[in-house]
């Protein structure tokens, strides 16, 4: 792999045109890059801020090839890029993060086996391909436990918690009888994430650990620094580094973890890996020396990583659905840094924007 | 004039597609606006980061009308928008800053008369329309003095310093025998600027006064805070406010001033007004709560102005021409925030980017 950095004026191809692609495009432009976006959806938020875009299906191999040949490097904003899509793109131009990261992050079972092989802590789990598996898995892991599809789950979609009153048949229906994983229930006291980057030269830089609160399975706030011992923070960042190193990763990675109280000690369990910029890293736009979006562009362009130094205590709050109707009071709030995604319609559960607030203290 | 703020999703039209338009577009996008850019030049830096653009002459009234009808408000990135262009645009959509600001800023003589009528301090001057005027003006203002064209001067173009050895005929040639102004020479000890904004509601907010150093008549560095007494800073900001109020100004304005030592006291003389975001305000992108670009968009969109609070001592350095070839070492410099404009060719004197550095201390 060449470590020759891409010069300003080079073109970065981004697969996926949502808000993450949009914010990647904005920071890429600030560094002097051109951006092309590939997305099947008309009116994608990233289209409006990029030099060119291709609106075509992820299965359209001609369009993929044309897109790839027009850019110097390809990255993506979401982990569900089909493997054949990734293969076609990678046959023309360097693809970062690489195919292995996509493969691991797309399949919950693959991801858990990968983490277990690395010796990293995670909740016990069992593969579930049907009624027999589920019955045996529930026998072993007990209730409550959580049944999740292996693929395409996000924001609480494709999962069901098996409490005492849930029939196995109904649980299988809830995951559409897809290949799934049963996870032991984790009685966590809080959720945290590590957002970090690995460069083409293997350099690694993590941001301060972030504490995350969800509402209706969707991230609501991320606050940094997390309420977590410094030992646990160091451990969390080291786990993210093991993952990134093992994947030969290039770019920003998000690693979600649970914190469990274990006899007065904080124990960490990895929940999942996102091979991309991460919602819990949006605070870095205003609270860190280098935003996660710039950092990702630096990594995929072969530039040195930027400083992940935190500038202030920061809280990021997502604006979900109708939350965005508060824009005029947020615009008037001293110190609130407003980031809106240019989405036309505020559907329930849709991420419309976020606001970063710098908090007093360090 | 309506003070109803433009909602996110509205479209802001920017006339001029250079780096100022580009940085306006990037910050407008962050606030959820769509941006359309109008510029006659193909490959304009702002085109690559906007939802749509019109490449047409400033005299193409059909194109201007179509552009204006597609947007909700029109602003511009440079003061030399022809008055007829401004008139056509303003007949379709609100234009901010308004026609009066353009009129004053486009013509050095008009500008000086405006400032004098406001009772603001500036160097003595005389209108020069030919040999007779120049001879009388030099008689009165002495040598050295500076002959500048009334219109279209920037970065030292269209001006000549009349030292003892300059013949009047050669001076007139140097300004292409255009209508001009002779200015008394100002033995300044430093150059400063006030970058400030006025909202649609008349609110006014100034950034901390910036100290500017030029090289070859082009801005080289801006450092904030300026080396200037707090009394003089307050006076400088008050002068900017008088100007903005008198013009019924909406948007960000830059006011360049000279500092003269006068018996141990700092005296200020206004040099010129820029009715737009200003190169000496680029430090606000990393050193202030609200960047000048966001601030300008807030003003033209009828939003409340953001906080102009400075976050740190900051120095902005322009990357002119070949300076940009240092991009890879700048990318690796801890704490250097790099802003590149996506211009293809690094011609001598061309502004290719800038770098902001936060400095120790307050």
UniProtKB/TrEMBL annotation, chains A, B:
Q: Which GO terms describe its molecular function?
A: 5-(carboxyamino)imidazole ribonucleotide synthase activity
Catalytic reaction annotation: 5-amino-1-(5-phospho-beta-D-ribosyl)imidazole + hydrogencarbonate + ATP = 5-carboxyamino-1-(5-phospho-D-ribosyl)imidazole + ADP + phosphate + 2 H(+)
* ATP-grasp domain sequence ranges: 112-301
Q: What class of enzyme is it?
A: ligase
Q: Which domain of life is it from?
A: Bacteria
Q: Which UniProt keywords apply?
A: ATP-binding, Ligase, Nucleotide-binding, Purine biosynthesis
Q: Annotated pathway, please?
A: Purine metabolism; IMP biosynthesis via de novo pathway; 5-amino-1-(5-phospho-D-ribosyl)imidazole-4-carboxylate from 5-amino-1-(5-phospho-D-ribosyl)imidazole (N5-CAIR route): step 1/2
Record-listed ATP binding positions: 108, 148, 153-159, 183-186, 191, 214, 271-272
Return the InterPro entries for the record.
ATP-grasp, ATP-grasp_carboxylate-amine, ATP_grasp_subdomain_1, PreATP-grasp_dom_sf, PurK, PurK_C, PurT/PurK_preATP-grasp, Rudment_hybrid_motif
- EC numbers, comma separated: 6.3.4.18
Subunit field text: Homodimer.
Per the record, the similarity remark reads: Belongs to the PurK/PurT family.
What does the record give as the function of this protein?
Catalyzes the ATP-dependent conversion of 5-aminoimidazole ribonucleotide (AIR) and HCO(3)(-) to N5-carboxyaminoimidazole ribonucleotide (N5-CAIR). Catalyzes the ATP-dependent conversion of 5-aminoimidazole ribonucleotide (AIR) and HCO(3)- to N5-carboxyaminoimidazole ribonucleotide (N5-CAIR).
Query: Which protein is depicted?
Result: N5-carboxyaminoimidazole ribonucleotide synthase
Q: Give the gene that encodes this protein.
A: purK
């Amino acid at each position: 792999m060449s470590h020759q950095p891409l010069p300003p004026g080079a073109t970065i191809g981004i697969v996926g045109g949502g808000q993450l692609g949009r914010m990647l495009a904005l920071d890429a432009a600030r560094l002097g890059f051109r951006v092309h976006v590939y997305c099947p959806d008309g009116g994608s938020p990233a289209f409006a801020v990029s030099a060119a875009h291709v609106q075509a299906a992820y299965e359209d191999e001609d369009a993929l090839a044309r897109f790839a040949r027009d850019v110097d490097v390809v990255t993506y904003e979401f982990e569900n890029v089909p493997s054949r899509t990734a293969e076609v793109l990678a046959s023309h131009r360097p693809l970062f993060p690489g195919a292995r990261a996509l493969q691991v992050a797309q399949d919950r079972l693959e991801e858990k086996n990968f983490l277990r092989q690395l010796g990293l802590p995670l909740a016990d789990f069992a593969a579930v391909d049907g009624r027999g598996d589920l019955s045996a898995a529930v026998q072993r892991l007990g209730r409550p436990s959580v049944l999740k599809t292996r693929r395409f789950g996000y924001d609480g979609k494709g999962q069901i918690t098996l409490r005492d009153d849930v029939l196995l048949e109904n649980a299988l229906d809830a995951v559409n009888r897809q290949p799934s994983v049963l996870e032991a229930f984790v009685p966590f006291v809080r959720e945290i994430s590590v957002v970090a980057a690995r460069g083409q030269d293997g350099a690694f830089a993590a941001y301060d650990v972030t504490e995350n609160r969800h509402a209706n399975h969707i991230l609501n706030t991320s606050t940094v620094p997390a309420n977590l011992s410094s030992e646990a923070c160091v451990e969390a960042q080291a786990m993210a580094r093991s993952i990134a190193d093992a994947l030969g990763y290039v770019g920003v990675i998000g690693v979600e973890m649970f914190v469990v109280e274990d006899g007065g000690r904080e124990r960490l369990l990895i929940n999942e890996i996102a091979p991309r910029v991460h919602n819990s890293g949006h605070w870095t736009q205003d609270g860190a020396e280098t935003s996660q979006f710039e950092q990702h562009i630096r990594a995929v362009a072969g530039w040195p990583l930027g400083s992940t130094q935190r500038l202030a205590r920061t809280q990021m709050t997502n604006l979900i659905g109708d939350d965005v109707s508060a824009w005029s009071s947020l615009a008037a709030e001293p110190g609130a840094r407003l980031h809106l995604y240019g989405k036309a319609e505020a559907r329930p559960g849709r991420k419309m924007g976020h606001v970063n607030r710098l908090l007093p203290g360090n």
